[in-house]
Design goal:
62% helix, cytoplasm, phosphoprotein, 295 residues, alpha/beta, 5 strands, five-stranded parallel β-sheet
C-alpha cells in the first residue's frame, strides 16, 4: 500500500473524491484531504505521502506552487504529483512545473481515465521500490561476500593449501546465494526472459495488463521482472506496453481510415477514448485524427 493525499478547494469535488473512490482497490491509503495548497504543504510535511493529487487553481497556494514547495521542503522523498486542471493547455502545466508532476487529469474526468493514471503511477512506485530493494540486496550481498572471503582467506593461511583459494571461496558463496531469484538467471537466460516478456505483451496488449500479470505469465516475481526488464530493455514494463499499443494504434489509423477513434482505443486495450486521445497526443505530438489525416 502507498499513502495518498488529495488537494481540492471545491468541497463537493473534494468530498466526492474522498468518499466516492475505492482507494484500496488501487493499493492506496487516502491519508488526508486538504482544501488548499497551504494546508496540503503542512500535511505533506507530516504524513509524507507517496502520491499527491492536486487541483491546479486554488486561492491559498495553487497546485503549481504546492509542487514546487514540496520539492524544495521535502528533499529526502520524491512525492509523485498528479495535477487536476480545467486548463486545456497541458503544455503550460508541464513547462511551468518540470517538478515531480508525473501525470495530469483534465476536468471533468471519467473513472476509467482516473484509474489508468493512478495505476500507472502506482506501477512506477512499484518499480522504484523494486530497484531500492535490489540495491539493498546487492549491498547486503557485497558485505556478506567480503566477510566470507576474508574469513576463508584467514582459514587458508592457518590450514594450508588444501582449502579453497579466495576466488574459489567467492565462487562457492555465489553458488550458495544462487538459490535466490536475483542470482537465478545468467546473461543469456535474462535476454531470453526479456524476449519472452516482449512476446507475451505483444500477444496480450489488447487486454488490461499489469506488471503482476506479465510476471506470472513468464514465471518470475514482479520485483525481479521490473529490474530485469529495465536493465535489459532500457524501459519499464508499463512503458513498453504503451509503446506496443500506440504502434498498433498508428497501424489502425493508417490502414482502417473509417475506424472511429473510440474503436481504435478499445482495440488496443483502452476503454476510455478520451484518455487514449490525450495519451496519443502526449506521446506522438498530435491527436489520432491529425495523425490519420497526415498518414
Amino acid at each position: 500500500m502507498y499513502t495518498c493525499m488529495i488537494v481540492e478547494d471545491e468541497e463537493v469535488i473534494r468530498e466526492g473524491m474522498r468518499f466516492g473512490i475505492d482507494w484500496a482497490s488501487y493499493r492506496l491509503n487516502l491519508a488526508a484531504a486538504a482544501s488548499d495548497g497551504k494546508e496540503a504543504l503542512e500535511l505533506a510535511g507530516r504524513i509524507r505521502p507517496d502520491i499527491v493529487i492536486t487541483d491546479v487553481v486554488m486561492k491559498e497556494m495553487d497546485g503549481i506552487e504546492l509542487a514546487r514547495r514540496m520539492q524544495a521542503d521535502i528533499k529526502d522523498k520524491a512525492i509523485k504529483v498528479i495535477m487536476i486542471s480545467g486548463h486545456e493547455n497541458v503544455d503550460y502545466i508541464r513547462s511551468a512545473l518540470k517538478l515531480q508532476v508525473v501525470d495530469y487529469l483534465l476536468k471533468p474526468f471519467h473513472e476509467e481515465e482516473f484509474a489508468e493514471v493512478v495505476r500507472k503511477v502506482v506501477g512506477d512506485l512499484d518499480e522504484e521500490r523494486s530497484r531500492e530493494e535490489r540495491l539493498r540486496s546487492l549491498e547486503r550481498r557485497n558485505e556478506l561476500s567480503q566477510a566470507w572471503v576474508r574469513d576463508r582467506l584467514v582459514e587458508n593461511l592457518s590450514a594450508g593449501p588444501a582449502k579453497p583459494t579466495g576466488l574459489d571461496a567467492y565462487a562457492e558463496l555465489d553458488d550458495l546465494l544462487a538459490g535466490g531469484e536475483l542470482a537465478s538467471l545468467n546473461g543469456s537466460d535474462q535476454r531470453k526472459a526479456v524476449r519472452a516478456v516482449k512476446a507475451y505483451i505483444q500477444s496480450a496488449f489488447r487486454e488490461e495488463l499489469t506488471l503482476a500479470q506479465v510476471a506470472e505469465a513468464v514465471h518470475l516475481s514482479p520485483n525481479y521482472l521490473a529490474n530485469l526488464f529495465k536493465k535489459n530493455a532500457g524501459s519499464t514494463v508499463n512503458d513498453y506496453i504503451t509503446q506496443i499499443r500506440l504502434a498498433e494504434a498508428k497501424r489502425l489509423l493508417r490502414e482502417e481510415p473509417g475506424l472511429l477513434v473510440q474503436h481504435v482505443a478499445e482495440r488496443i486495450g483502452y476503454k476510455d477514448g478520451k484518455y487514449f486521445t490525450k495519451l496519443f497526443k502526449r506521446e506522438v505530438g498530435m491527436n489520432p485524427s491529425e495523425f490519420r489525416d497526415r498518414a
